Amino acid sequence: MKELKKRIREEGKVIGSEILKVDHFLNHQIDPVLMFKIGEKFADIFENKEVSKVITIESSGIAPALMTGLALKVPVIFARKKKPVTLDEGSLSTEIFSFTKQVSNTVYIEKGMLTADDHVLIIDDFLANGEASLGLTKIIEMAGAVVVGIGIVIEKSFQDGRKRLDHAGYPVFSLARIASLENGQVTFIER
Amino acid sequence: MKELKKRIREEGKVIGSEILKVDHFLNHQIDPVLMFKIGEKFADIFENKEVSKVITIESSGIAPALMTGLALKVPVIFARKKKPVTLDEGSLSTEIFSFTKQVSNTVYIEKGMLTADDHVLIIDDFLANGEASLGLTKIIEMAGAVVVGIGIVIEKSFQDGRKRLDHAGYPVFSLARIASLENGQVTFIER
Question: Which residues bind xanthine (chains A, B) (predicted)?
Answer without folding.
Answer: 20, 27, 156
